[in-house]
Amino acid sequence: MISYLSKFFYVLSQNRKSIFLLISVFVFSSLLEVFGISLIAPFLWLASKPEVLHQNWWANKIYSDLGFSSAHNFVIFCGIALIIIFCLKSFSYFLAQSYINHFSFANQGKLISRLLTAYLSVPYTFYLSRDTSSIITNIFYETQNFCFKSMIPLLQFTSNAIAILVLLILLAKTDLLLLIILSVILLPIFFLFYYLKGQSRKWGQDESEAYHDMMRTVNDGLGGIKETYVIGCQPYFIDEMNIYVNKYTTSKTSFVNFQTLPRIILETLLILFTVIIVLVHQIFLSQSIESLLGVLSIFAAASIRLMPALSQSLSAIGTIQTGSYALDMLYSDLRNTSQSIDNLEMKFQHLNILSNSNYLLSNHRLSAEFLLKQIDIQNLSYKYPNSAISAISNIYLTINKGESVAFVGKSGSGKTTLVDIILEAKVIIYHGRIDIQKKGLDVLLDAWQKICHRRPDQTLRLLLVGTGTDAPALQQKIARENLRDIVWINKYIRDRNAIQRYLSAADVYTLPSRHEGFPVAPLEAMACSVPVVATNVQGIPEILESGEMSGGLIVPIDDVEALATALESILDNEMWAKELGRRARERVERYFSLKTIGQQMRSFLLNEDLPN
Fold first, then answer.
1. Same fold, 16-348 and 373-605
2. How far apart are CA 164 and CA 168, in angstroms?
3. Where are the domains of the chain?
4. Where are the transmembrane segments (predicted)?
5. Fewest beta carbons less than 10 Å away: which of 109, 171, 375, 519?
């Protein structure tokens, strides 16, 4: 229950204070109601025997203070006062229920706006694992479920629970034994609802999933109506809709039937309680029914409010359990989009900082020199996280610079997924000899596993370019550990243009080696404006002499977590990655270009001073 309430208040966000105002209204209404009910028995007693007026201290004092001349007039006055109290009670109850409805519907509208703002503010990568129909369903259907199956039932349950508590206190003071008997009779219904709580959530989940599937089917069938007619798949969409309609009907019917149980059972048990009490007094205790009239009148008056309150409370509990799935969906999306928006705001802040310098402009100029001549995709397959079916499989595609390409296919065939991967996938690249021990490739794969585990919804690729004697062992490790999203060009690449294309497609280059002399591969990556993450092996401190200022990060040897964290820090901050790439390109041009190396060799051979 604590977990449910924490999610509930998170979704409500800034409207929590209003709930405490509602609770105050509920308490006042309940106290006024109990006060009126508690006066019913004394009024009936006084109306039947006006002569006993002067035997009660309070009644006699009121009679004297108000200057009544006859008991008959005082009884009329008490009746009018009782009517006014119940009218005030009814009016306050109506105001409380009206405020509940206004509060709930107003917050539903605010929640719709909040969700839409969140969905429009997240990075595009958020949509790589989501379809539009599920988002539309959340905005309209799940917010409606939250309103009618979480917010209104929870508020009504709170209102009724306060009324029930106060009424039970009144009944306990009237006749504790009768209250205990009534509680024992009502106990089975509470066990029934507790037993079915899991089933209630299942009905809510089935209903939401079926509605989402119906929305998706309509969106796919009518959204791509031309493709539907061309391919001739109208029967497919009709059959799909029938399946989801049957699922929706079953779950919705079960829920509504479940909602009618409390009233039916409570009415039956109330009659059972009354008959049992009368029989016990007349048969077993041999007492006159007249001795029970005062007590039964209070119980009857209390039941006018108590029975509906119990019925509504039990129904509310079932409804809340059914609506918990909708609450979980909204809570999850609001939390996830909030984190994505926070990350996006950090990027915007970084962009504002860069816009005040020359870095951004020069980075664009550098990038322009290395635009790809073509996009070359070979044997590309992809499945979304937690999905057993591949979204795309075995794709081979070459797009030359300047060409316009159209992807044609039915809805769900993977067109958007392919474009998303081309435009949005984050790529880590390693190229070099496949030597697991010396090159630290086991460390790289362990780090990759951590990165993928911490980013299940992000489109990621580890691109391995190269081969060697350890290629079979590396392939076995990848298969044994079921590592995902690894693209391996298992051959020697001697074409420098091909190497440049692979490097230019990456977001970050990594060298996880345990041993090196003076590695050239990081310099090739830096020449393509790709930031570098390398271990602290021989040669790297000279290449990345100033660390970040030189265009890369240096991590300890054999430290999986440090390698994963460094790579993630670059993947998560696109503007910083571009800045590191600019610095890397600048350092290569200044210290490792052919011109610079030539001048250094000339100066060494001729014993000349090295240029600055």
1. no
2. 6
3. 16-348, 373-605
4. 20-46, 66-88, 151-170, 176-196, 264-285
5. 109
Angle at 205 between CA 15 and CA 155, to 5 degrees: 30
What does the pLDDT read at residue 135?
80
Whole-angstrom Cα distance, residue 328 to residue 308?
29
Nearest 5°: the CA angle 75, 76, 81 is 95
Average pLDDT over residues 363-383: 53
Q: What SS3 state is found at 214?
A: helix
Identify residue 179 by its one-letter amino acid code.
L
Q: Which run of H or of E encompasses 48?
A: helix 40-48
**pLDDT band at residue 359, thresholds of 50, 70 and 90?**
very low
**If we measure between CA atoms, which residue out of 530, 417, 404 comes closest to residue 465?**
530
**What's the rounded Cα separation, in Å, for the pair 293 and 200?**
41
Convert the pLDDT of each residue in 43-102 to its tens digit.
777 777 777 677 777 777 777 888 777 877 888 888 888 888 778 877 877 877 787 778
Closest CA to 526 of 373, 415, 414, 366: 366
For the chain, the residue count is 612
- Going by C-alpha positions, the residue among 274, 290, 302 that lies closest to residue 39 is 302
CATH class name, domain 373-605? alpha beta
Burial 572-609 (b: 16+ CB within 10 A, else e): ebebbbbbbbbbbbbbbeeebeeeeeeeeeeeeeeeee
Q: What tokens does 20 get?
A: 């405490």
Please identify which residue in the block is written with the tokens 């496949």. 434
Backbone angles phi, psi at 141, to 5 degrees: -75, -45
The pair of three-digit structure tokens given for residue 73, joined into one six-digit string:
């007039």
CATH fold for the domain made of 16-348: ABC transporter transmembrane region fold (1.20.1560)
User: Parallel, antiparallel, or unpaired for β 460-465 and 426-431?
Assistant: parallel
Q: How much of the chain is in helix, strand and coil states, percent to nearest 5?
A: 75, 10, 20
- Give the helix ranges, DSSP H, for 481-593: 496-504, 521-527, 540-543, 560-571, 574-587
Q: What integer is the mean pLDDT of 497-508?
A: 85
From residue 573, give the alpha-carbon distance in Å to each of 477, 529, 570. Answer: 30, 15, 5
Provide the pLDDT confidence category of residue 611 given band limits of 50, 70 and 90.
low
Q: Which residues are CB-contacts of 362 (< 8 A; sequence separation ≥ 6)?
A: 582
For residue 591 the two structure tokens come to: 């210290």
For residues 502-521, average pLDDT: 90
CA dihedral (439, 445, 450, 454) positive or negative = positive
Q: Is 553 helix (H, G, I), strand (E, B) or coil?
A: strand
Q: Which amino acid is at 105?
A: F
Say what the pLDDT of residue 392 is.
Answer: 77
3-state secondary structure 278-343: HHHHHHHCCCCHHHHHHHHHHHHHHHHHHHHHHHHHHHHHHHHHHHHHHHHHHHHHHHHHHHHHHH
Q: 189 and 269 in contact (C-beta within 8 Å)?
A: yes
Which pLDDT value is given to residue 425?
75
Q: Predicted confidence band at 297 (pLDDT cuts at 50, 70, 90)? A: low
Q: By three-state DSSP, how is residue 376 classified? A: strand
Q: Which helix (H) or strand (E) holds 533?
A: strand 532-535
| Residue 7 banded pLDDT, cuts 50, 70, 90 | confident
Please report, for the chain, how many H helices and E strands are present, in that order: 24, 8
Partner residues linked to 431 by β-bridges: 465
Cα separation, 527 vs 597, whole angstroms: 15
